Amino acid sequence: xxxxLELLKDNKVRLVVACxxxxxxxxxxxxxxxxxxxxxxxxxFIGGVRIPISLEKPVDATTMSAMVDVIKTRINKYxxxxxxxxxxxxxxxxxEIPKADASVIGSxxxxxKEQGHFEAVVDGRQALAGEDVMQNAVGGPxxxxxxxxxxxxVGWDIVFAVTGAGQMRFADAATGKFGYPVYMFLDRPxxxxxxxxRSVINGGAPANEGTVRDALRKENDDILLYYAEDFNxxxxxxxxxxxxxxxxxxxxxxxxxxxxxxxxxxxFGANGTGKKLVVVSDSEMAxxxxxxxxxxxxxxxxxxxxxAIGLMSAPTLRVEPVREDRITxxxxxxxxxxxxxxxxxxxxxxxxxxxxxxxxxxxxPVSTSVGSYYDIAPSLxxxxxxYSLWATLAAIAAVAALVVLRYRRFDLVFPIVLIxxxxxxxLFAFIGTFGTIDLSAMAGIISLIGxxxxxxxxxxxxxxxxxxxxxxxxxxxxxxxxxxxxxxxFTIIFTVAGVSIASMLxxxxxxxxxxxxxxxxxxxxxxxxxxITRPAYGVIVxxxxxxxxxx
Length: 551
Known about the structure:
Helix content is 49%, strand content 19%. The chain has helices at residues 2-7, 11-28, 43-46, 61-76, 102-113, 164-174, 198-202, 209-216, 231-241, 250-255, 257-265, 282-285, 341-359, 379-407, 413-434, 439-464, 475-508, 513-544, and strands spanning 48-55, 84-88, 92-98, 118-122, 125-129, 133-138, 144-148, 154-162, 182-186, 192-196, 224-227, 245-249, 276-280, 288-293, 299-305, 311-313, 328-336, 368-370, 374-376. The strands form five sheets. Strands 1, 2, 3, 18 and 19 form a five-stranded antiparallel beta sheet that branches. A four-stranded antiparallel beta sheet has the order 5-4-9-16. Strands 6, 7, 8 and 17 form a four-stranded antiparallel beta sheet that branches. Strand 2 and strand 3 (92-98) form a beta hairpin. Helix 15 (413-434) packs antiparallel against helix 18 (513-544) and helix 16 packs parallel to helix 18.
């Protein structure tokens, strides 16, 4: 026991212990309820439906990525963030919705068939609608650019054209508004109110409240804002407002259930009332601000994005519109945030992609047809988990028997099985936290048993190859010899891992849904083993096979 406690002084072992603690937290304590498993599972394990979307023609990787992003944005706008959108080859997209009932399926199908509703608002008046923007004249090779500004910041420009009727409407709303923000919305909630904590809305800066309330204004359809701290005093006002949509954050719904309960008592989310209670994520509820500098050099804080109300961008109006019934081109520009120039450049590129989608009303660059959905029964997942458990136990038993037969030592069984189990735990936590554990990912997790044991046997063989009679004559020489043997073992391990990862990359980049999960879990499993667990095993087995000079 003392020898094992001595191992905790080694940093490689400490790293493994820290990773195990973090993994257990990620699996069981993310929702602060240890009785539940918090990892994200695919529909094969928990049931759901798949909806295929066929493209009218094959597309390249860039166009496919843009289409997936648009579909994700469109679905997430309706609170279906658990949906998974993945490309299948170059002519099909798969939408997966876990634990879906008939009403959810119908909503998703309707969302996929509809276009988003775009509108631009200036000083509380609608300046543009989706039908005002000419769809084939948004951005393009000559209509968008990303450039480095003075001081190292990164700016962007995008050109779009509006119809004659749109130009008239824009002039009516924006004449004399030079320097005002142009709030660009995609699916702005109608007849809505928001209940949120004050610190979330103003970002901890009370001065931002005026900017936030300005974004909520629209002629004849203001979005009402009520603070959770004053909710009890605002109940009568909320009832009198008689809005049809109430928006709250996930943390408010969880931490202050009395507010959600009161809203339901008012009819929000209740059957037959026609009123909706929309729960958005905390990140969507928090407005995104941007601190910049005006053309006159003054510091200002502007609202950049607010997903809860569909605000996708808020560029500043830099032109005075002319009231003429003719097609007109406009250029909007902005500055992308970023701690480095590279980060700012990437954010600018992402901003342009998003704006092109928004100005097009969420339209996809290629026409699509939505196929009939099909159910995935969760029973398959339960059977697979059962078989996987038995297979894992059988593999562990086989490994233990092999170790005993090969090395004639029972004390090696425990560290090999322990390290292998830790590798599986870390990979399970990583995939379940940052991705989805589906059938292909689970296959990759199970395959880690074999690769992990192989590498541990390589380390053990290198140390066990030295016989007692071959021990060095001094302790220093003995230590150097041990480290040389471990280094030789890791040279083999790194080479094998590199070849394995290289062989998995084509599968990962293939876009084939059924194998990308396997490739991803295999790659990250190898990286976890090579850089975290197997170095710790080397320390452990060095103690077990660390012959003394007098041996």
